[in-house]
Structures are given as C-alpha cells and as structure tokens.
Amino acid sequence: MAASSPGxxxxxxxxxxxxxxxxxxxxxxxxxxxxxTLRPRNLxxxxxxxxxxxxxxxxxxxxxxxxxxxxxxxxxxxxxYRQGCRIxxxxxxxxxxxxxVKLLDLLFLIxxxxxxxxxPTRILVSSGYRxxxxxxxxxxxxxxxxxxxxxxxxxxxxxxxxERLGRLVRALGAGGVGFYPSKGFIHVDVGRVRTWRVAALVxxxxxxxxxxxxxxxxxxx
Length: 221
Hints:
By secondary structure, this protein is of the alpha+beta class. The protein has one domain (50-213): 2-Layer Sandwich (Muramoyl-pentapeptide Carboxypeptidase, domain 2), CATH 3.30.1380. 35% of the residues lie in helices and 25% in strands. The chain contains seven helices and nine strands; from the N terminus they run αααβββααβαβαββββ. The chain has helices at residues 10-26, 28-37, 40-48, 78-87, 101-116, 132-136, 162-172, and strands at 52-58, 63-71, 75-76, 123-127, 152-156, 176-180, 185-189, 194-203, 206-213. It has a nine-stranded mixed beta sheet with strand order 3-2-1-4-5-7-6-8-9.
C-alpha cells in the first residue's frame, strides 16, 4: 500500500517513533525539531510498510479481537479486515459496516508507538461505528459524526493518560482528536486534522461542560 520513503532506514523510523515519546514529555519545541528530521507522513509510510496486526478490546461486548488486516507483499487480508469491522461495530444496535481502513491504520500506528516505547498497548474501544439512529440518541453528538461513516472511534489505554494519548495522536497528524478527560477517553478519526477539548467544570451541586475548540471546526465527535 504505502511506498517506502527514500533515504530513511528502518532504524531511523523506529528511533523517530520512539522520539515521539520524548517529544510528548518535553513539549512542542522538541516535537518541532523531530518533525523537521522526519515528518509524520514519512513515518506513516514506513510504519505501514509491513504486516499490520491489531489487538482491540470491546468492553461493552465482552470481546477481544486480535487480527492481521494487511499483509506486506500480499495486500488486504479480508478475514482480518472483517474481524476489525466486527469489533468496531455498533454494539448497542447490533450493526456492522465496512470500516474505513485508514481508521484501522491509525489504531495500528497508535499501538505500534506504544509498543516501541514500552508502554501499555491495550486499546479499549468504547465507541466505533454508530448507526444514525444510535447517534441521534446521544447528547452532544454531531449530526454528521464520523462515527456514522465508520471513520472514528473513542478509545482509552489503561495506564496511559488521556492527555498523553491525545498528544500522541495529535503528533501523528492523521486526523481529528478530541480530549475527554473527565470521561477518560479520546476521540480519534480520519477526517481532517483538527483538535478539540471538552473539560468538566464542577461547581457545588452542578456540573457544566465547557467546550474549548482549538481549530474552530464545525463537527467533532
């Protein structure tokens, strides 16, 4: 699928992927220096130029799926892809659709980065595909949510904070990322690159939600 970027070795890619960890701890200045050396697009191409394995957990369904959806030199593994579509289905409405493969790639990149940096790798999916009917019942969900197009997921990684995980996805630059710290998850999608943050403001006897949009985009979750 993705062609290799000329002049970049596998060792450089792994070092750059690991360097993201340092960047997320040290801040944006280091992240900028890393980006000059090896931009995310090159990282994506090199990291995706291999068999793509994923392990996803779906607590609401009590299911765990471990599968390979792409094999280097052979292409898409349809059985693995079907497993990915199933684990990301609308559990409540019992509906499965074709998930956008870019979403699987994004989840693969996240899990690869965690593994390279010796961090917890369990990806727990609280929401993947949503039927339009399901989406309409959720307070605050965008009408044109990317969940209903199979392009988004809400995830958490036990042992990795919302802030750190969200910064990782933002650094990958593969789509949208929403921070939901009070609910313990982040939203990731493969739409346009943008970031937003929802914070809970708790006052005596009342909880209010404040939405801080960093890119002034219209549609989020």
